Model the fold of this input.
Amino acid sequence: MCRAEWSHLPEDVRPLAALGNEERIRHIRAKRWVDYPHADRVMRRLNEIYVQPRSERMENMLLIGQSGMGKTTLVRKFERTHTVRLGNNGTCRLHPIVVMLMPHDPTGPRFFSQLLKAIGVPAIDNFETTAPRESTVLRVLAEVQVKVIVIDELNSVLAGTARQQRLFLQLLRWLSNELRVALVGIGVPETRHALLSDDQLRNRFMNLELPVWENGQDFSHFVTRLIWSLPLREPSPVDSRRLMQMLVGRTGGITLGTCKAIERAAIRAIRSGTERLDYQAFEHEEVWDGIEAPVIMGGHRRKSRRG
Amino acid sequence: MGKEGTPSSLPLVPFPHRAEAFSSWLSRLAARYDLHADHLALHAGYPLRGARELDCYLLPQADCALALMTGLSQRSIRTMRCGMPQRRLWVRDHHVWCRECVREALLEGDEPWERRSWRTGATVICSRHRRVLEEACPRCNKIGKGCLFLSDKGRVQPLCAVKGDKINLWGDASDDQLPWGLTIDRTISRCVNALSIDLCRSLVGQTLRAQWRGVSRERRLTTIIEELTLITLITIDYLPRPQPPLYWMLEQSDWKAAFHYTPAMLPTSLATCIIMLASVVLSDHQFFEDRVFLDPSEYQVACEPLTPETYVMWLHPKVRSWGQQIISAPFGV
Done:
């Protein structure tokens, strides 16, 4: 098979189509970034947060979305674009953006420990006796010139008691004031409730939602771009309305489910030798193993919209 | 931990100074995060020995992890070591320093840091400032408490570990005088430095730069200095009982047989005198004729010129013939 036949693929993917099956499958399973309008909007807002001048009252952001919508992937991409290495009087890797995972219990010492871990500071084994001190956290964060602290899974705050939640939100406010850094909270829609107990903090947060996909042009473009990046040797006719409806219906419009289904169908297409994705490729039940529409807050499952 | 279980890279890494000891750099690195150097060493995968013990142990796997954490090359980390495990008895257990060198570092806005050469008993005089290395804290006057190299507020600071306050290094050292009427001038300083350099080279198995009496392929320079140390200690009837390092003892099949007195176990003033005597008696003594004087009884009246012969005459009768053998040996390779 000659390369000219893979003209349906972008130029950078064509050499991959020449690889063997297992190598192509490995490539399909690897992480990739596909632009889409909602992500661009979030990225623009994140950049606005990043470029704002340091002040006593920084503008913060709460990015909410269903689990699997790619919130973490998005902020990791944002973090990667702003890491700088300096080399004066030693090595200093500046961390203007720190992406941390909210600890399972919302207490100060655990939060500080997690924050330091996020910038690569070794965790202390004996946590109970030597939890990191505030002064250490403030100094290290100032030295790496933090501007934005992104707290992933902020909804874990809700796991604490009402008092713990209040204290934790006070701690966030204090950290933001002391270091003059912006905060970006990431979480599921319930995260909004976490901020309710601190009016001052809530007023400083701009809410931004990463909505689930609906069947439309944006979704169609996203799926097309995603499939375009896969090294399949035949053109894939995937722009049919029926197929889009099937994808949105069975995944509930969740990005992770959509990507997983497409990856599995692509791997199956390579193994079976069909080398293309079409409606039939998604009709196999094994493509949908473990992929379900999300459960909405009331406990009802979203109505399935199978194509 | 980063990918595949390797420690993630550290955001703040001070560059090692030229000639800095590994433990000193590790302390400065750990200070950035208000950690103890031992903690950081453990995190990088070094066995639990204490960071200062690592100055004479090469552990390639842990060195590789530390290189990944810090962005330094493995070679840079390796060259910060100051001896081999077999020569562990030559490595000092406590901090020594040259006041002028530390002052210079502080004036440049830097932290106090330890030179590799200060870690071994081979070095007793600062080659740049011709000063005997100090070991007692100018604030509390105690030895081996870690004073002057304490971590505080993200940096290594010149603090007293006992009294907790800053150490004033701007005055002169309280006692800069050597025993036995010995004094340091330019000539003797150069000779002591030459011996120190060759001892350091001998500790890491490198070829020597100068010729010294009795040195051969079978008989190392360090062995001769160990013998001179012992016969001098017997003569002055001072045999300290140092605690040999635990890990060194564990590595020996018979540690008592392997034990030797080295200048690293002695107070720096006494170690300086022994190295000075050695530098004269093991080199061409005509060069020093009537230049170095010895007054072992410290009467300060009858200082006699230091020559190999006067040195042997001074030795205790029991070890005099041993001393004679050492000073009459031919110059080695």
Q: What stands out?
A: Strands of chain B lie at 12-13, 150-152, 155-157, 293-294, 304-305. The two ends of chain B are 50 Å apart (CA to CA). The first strand of chain B starts at residue 12 and ends at 13. Residues 198 and 208 of chain B are 5 Å apart (CA to CA).
